[in-house]
Design brief:
Mean pLDDT of chain A: 94
Shape of chain A: globular
Number of helices of chain A: 18
Low-confidence stretches of chain A: none
Number of strands of chain A: 16
Radius of gyration of chain A: 29 Å
Oligomer: homodimer
Helix content of chain A: 40-55%
Strand content of chain A: 15-25%
Strand order of the largest sheet of chain A: 1-5-6-11-10-9-7-8
Chain lengths: 454, 454
């Protein structure tokens, strides 16, 4: 056991400062969720593998953390499959449970399982960790938090308008300047139809989703590779180069998609959502991006993506509307719209821009030095008074060298130290030291409380 | 997929009301932890099995949830062991990681791993779920939260005194009347010595720990069974029947343990901790219980257990001092003391005594009915103003029947509903309905905000 212990790769310990800052992020998002009428639920970390498997594609199935059955797990295993190394099939014989991969599938499962108790529209938020057996790399972890809010059982665009305001409020509170990019899956479908390639909607969106990253030339090349005719690619060019104000771009795309009823419906929805959101006013930049796709197989209407304006980092929040969240669990026809905040990237943005409020670290306001038994007894009495006044206070537990005690207060960035020695004890007073100015004053416990409450 | 989905046995979904109430518990405990100068850390759900195995006894090892290695997990497995059904050894070949079983071992691992960054004494709190493959039964779950606070790197009894006050503060905030029972492992050692059975300390404490449950006769029988002589059992009787005030009991046990230096040290520690705690004053009943053992192999000094006075339920909080938290990870000599709040049992007590504050459910303050596009647009403007004033508000997303909308507000226990129809729209006013009295008033948005802020 002499070897220094470690944690699994891709996982993290969070120090007091990191934890406090992460809590600041979660608390801020949670407060705004509540302000907007979302209600919290929590689901177990472990789900039945039958709930999770097949929901994230073949790749996703491989990224699920599976939990070994308790007891004699080998009893149910087919030894022939073991011998031939059929890992996937053996895994499903010796594991019944897995760690959740996201919050969406557990939410869908929750809605179906508890449908009788729920009143629709159901507005829930959920802030919990998820696990993925991804190859760890910078900024990608095997355990990370998702912060999701969804409204299900309503197809009103009022929900989209609410969510856009909610996003704006969250990032306003963080002090992060953002652009919110919008698209609509129906516009993407309309584009594919207009190009005469309705069956190639996935190829088209996968390719044009990379526009920002690889540029128009390479997107075009990829489209040809994916089987689009040169004529179709030609017809796509005006769509990809649409510019102007939101209204101008909506007018242009509307005329370009004039022959696609689906496309026109998408434009109408975008028009309604952007007009209402702008009328209410927001701090964020609102932007259209007809190449935005995000989880295409899933979204059916509005698509939302948020980028930080002052830090080059990927999407920090995203979401959209889906029409069949719960169909896979036997409850079809439930439309919903949701967003997910990426806590880790928000953490990185707040760090890069030095936007964490100082209070988020919340050190104790005052440490009482420990100068011996009777002095410590009085210190504890004063500490009790201070805590009753809402001031966080603590005593250095050991009667050790003063230098060590002051160093501890310093290391913990505690702004005040109280010293109660023989003299102070006899006068029922304390010496209050301001750790940033070094100033020391002899005050009564009540005076100290008044000073600290300021 | 027609079958209704479910969750693994022993795990739970938490509804909005349950989640809000659980958050009330966590937030209250967290606030008090902070008030006392504890700082939060978080550790990953998954630990290396090498960190977890062997720390909880043979039974504990079996209760660990093990995570199947990703990829070709069979490659490392010994097929002979599989053939002979050696589940434990096969498990260790195909699983490198497990879910944490408690917060103590991960904390010990954290302290050793991060020793260079930490300033001792280190005061941390941690509120996270743990997982145990226990047989599920009423009140026992396979996933549950622990709320732990520990001070490590200090053997001062000031820490015990602080923790007792902290416990008192937490339960005072909850409104739960409690008794805090104290013992000291050194007293237990002294009892064993005095009985002439120092080597039987574990047998003795395991037996007398059951005193409350099975009564003195059965405890005595068990002690004989465990190899104690009838004379030793005879000598134990006055110890088990000690009565009187705390001081009287300390005096009696002191005289009974007069020949055991270890026992006397334990009595001295108990005397110091109880005297200082009582001098500071507390709402809880403070009590001594010389039969209290709790995790005997682990604690070395003070032992703490909390029971609710008004509900018959087991221990709702417990803790104690340990001398060698981190020794198993190669860092000996770190003394510490900690406590753990049992969130699930506290939940049950708060429910039984109907002590959850109404606000803990935090419904939205006001729902705006949806009577059509222009009306909804005005509603959203007013909602924005209200949220800016800190009032949680939402719009019913769909323009459906009024009865349905009002029913939804009712189901969600939302105290106010705002109605903006044609008339209100033309006057820039809203009809504010108090859902408990049924009273309706026509007011301006500003007047509504004033009413709701009260």
């Amino acid at each position: 056991m002499a070897q220094k212990p470690s944690i699994p790769k891709g996982t993290r310990d969070f120090s007091p400062l990191e934890t406090a800052r992460r809590n600041y992020i979660f608390d801020t998002i949670r407060d705004v969720f509540r302000l907007y009428g979302f209600r919290p639920i929590e689901t177990p970390a472990m789900e039945n593998l039958s709930t999770l498997m097949g929901k994230y594609g073949d790749e996703g199935d491989k990224l699920l953390f599976k939990i070994l059955n308790s007891g004699d797990f080998l009893a149910k295993a087919d030894h022939e499959l073991i011998a031939t190394g059929e890992t996937a099939r053996v895994a499903s014989q010796i594991c019944e449970k897995g760690l959740r991969y996201d919050l969406t599938v557990p939410f869908a499962r929750y809605v179906v399982q508890h449908r009788a108790e729920l009143q629709f529209p159901f507005k829930r938020f959920q802030i919990q960790p998820v696990w993925r057996a991804d190859r760890p790399q910078k900024g990608r972890y095997r355990e990370f938090y998702q912060c999701d809010a969804d409204i299900v059982g309503s197809d009103s665009l009022a929900n989209e308008i609410e969510l856009l305001q909610l996003i704006d409020e969250v990032f306003t509170r963080f002090g992060i300047r953002i652009a919110i990019k919008l698209n609509n899956r129906k516009v993407l479908a309309g584009i594919a139809e207009t190009l005469g390639a309705a069956d190639k909607i996935i190829d088209i969106t996968v390719a044009i989703d990379k526009l920002d990253k690889i540029g128009i030339e390479q997107v075009n090349a990829e489209l040809i590779e994916r089987g689009l005719t040169p004529e179709a690619v030609e017809r796509l060019q005006p769509i990809l180069s649409i510019s102007g104000s939101i209204d101008e771009r909506l007018d242009t795309i509307e005329s370009l998609l004039a022959d696609s009823p689906t496309g026109l419906l998408g434009v109408k929805e975008l028009r309604e959502v952007t007009a209402a959101t702008l009328a209410l006013g927001l701090n964020a930049e609102l932007d259209l991006d007809f190449s935005l796709a995000r989880g295409l197989n899933y979204y059916t209407g509005t698509i939302i993506e948020v980028k930080a304006l002052d830090v080059a980092i990927g999407s920090i929040t995203g979401g959209g509307r889906y029409d069949n969240l719960t169909g896979v669990f036997g409850m079809p026809g439930i439309s919903g719209v949701g967003i997910s905040f990426g806590a880790d990237r928000i953490y990185d943005v707040l760090t890069a821009l030095e936007l964490f409020p100082e209070e988020s670290a919340r050190p104790t306001t005052i440490m009482f030095a420990n100068l011996g038994t009777p002095e410590a007894a009085m210190a504890m009495k004063v500490i009790k008074q201070m805590r009753q006044a809402g001031i966080s206070a603590e005593i250095y537990p050991d009667n050790t060298k003063m230098k060590k005690q002051m160093g501890w207060a310093d290391d913990h960035k505690i702004p005040y130290v109280a010293i109660i020695g023989e003299t102070e004890l006899s006068q029922n007073k304390l010496t209050l030291k301001n750790m940033s100015t070094g100033e020391q004053t002899l005050v009564s416990p009540e005076e100290a409380i008044d000073i600290l409450k300021k």
